[in-house]
Design brief:
174 residues; mainly alpha; elongated
């Protein structure tokens, strides 16, 4: 059993995580990693995201990826989706919509990793919450900017900005 450097070392120099042999089945991993969240999850979260996320969690655990690195990947997928939505290409916008689905699934993975490793932290929760403020706001602004490039009306930029700003304001209040 050797030490392997985590992908997180790219983002956090000096960070190392031991690679684990995952012995648990998917069913056992669900029991360990997926706490009941009915009051928070949407239909999509319960019926799609949580069913898929555990397989990504298993892969990330085998690769030694930390919860904070999973959050960074989650953030990057959301930012990428937002950038794709700005494009004038229908295919790029479609790819952006698919990336948003991946973003939503990846949202579950960081917490599942933290629960598996019993490494939940205030820093990790804060980082996750910041990602929850940034990505949806960027999606609204990206949609507005994308519509501006297609329809040439400044209304969409203003609407996208107002939606992004309103989302961040409402998120900060709650």
């Amino acid at each position: 059993e050797g030490q392997a450097q985590d992908i997180g070392a790219i983002f956090l120099p000096g960070h190392k995580e031991q690679v684990h042999e995952i012995m648990e089945t998917v069913k056992e991993l669900r029991q360990i990693c997926q706490k009941p969240r009915q009051q928070y999850d949407t239909w999509h979260g319960i019926n799609i995201s949580r069913r898929v996320s555990i397989y990504i969690t298993m892969l990330f655990l085998k690769l030694g990826i930390s919860a904070n690195t999973a959050t960074t990947i989650f953030l990057c997928s959301g930012v990428s989706a937002s950038l794709l939505l700005v494009s004038e290409s229908k295919l790029a916008v479609f790819a952006g919509a698919i990336m948003l689905q991946l973003w939503y699934i990846l949202d579950h993975v960081d917490g599942e990793i933290a629960r598996y490793r019993r490494q939940a932290s205030a820093t990790g929760v804060y980082f996750d919450q910041v990602c929850h403020y940034i990505t949806p706001a960027l999606v609204f602004f990206g949609l507005g900017l994308g519509l501006f490039f297609r329809l040439h009306s400044i209304f969409y930029v203003i609407a996208g900005f107002l939606c992004a700003f309103s989302f961040m304001l409402l998120s900060a209040i709650k």
